[in-house]
Amino acid sequence: MTRHAKNDDQKNALCSRRYSSSLSQLSQGTTGAGKSQLSIDLARALHGEVINGDSMQVYHGADVLTNKVTKEEMGEVKHNLLGLVDPRQPYDVTNFRRDATEIVPPGSVFTDQD
């Protein structure tokens, strides 16, 4: 399996949903499949940001275990909800939703209003 989409047509095909004049792309798959690199490539091409949705990468540490992107891989692309939480603190989907809606307003992308 390749680390990321091979060309712009593949990248654009993954960005097919429009919400409130913004493009959104959701990548899912197993650890090490290339989701992070694809997201970084798309964010660079579209002048966007990456919002982490990995339930383990939201925590500080365990970078190797979760295959968390490095500072070098991130480059200049802003990453949200990555390494945000102390692993000794409780953090659940309610916390994630609260934090995510500070970045993406409710009703604009992948919410129960769609």
* Assigned CATH class: Alpha Beta
Structural class assignment: alpha+beta
Count of domain modules: 1
Shape: globular
Q: What is the name of the CATH superfamily? A: P-loop containing nucleotide triphosphate hydrolases
Structure characteristics:
114 residues, alpha+beta, Rossmann fold, disordered N terminus
How does this model look, in words?
With 114 residues, this protein is α+β, with helices and mostly antiparallel strands. The protein has a single domain (8-103), classed as Rossmann fold (3-Layer(aba) Sandwich), CATH 3.40.50.300. The chain contains 5 helices and 4 strands, in the order H-E-E-H-E-H-H-E-H. Strands 1-2 form a two-stranded antiparallel ribbon. The protein has a two-stranded parallel ribbon with strand order 3-4. It starts with 7 loop residues before the first helix and ends in an 11-residue tail after the last helix.
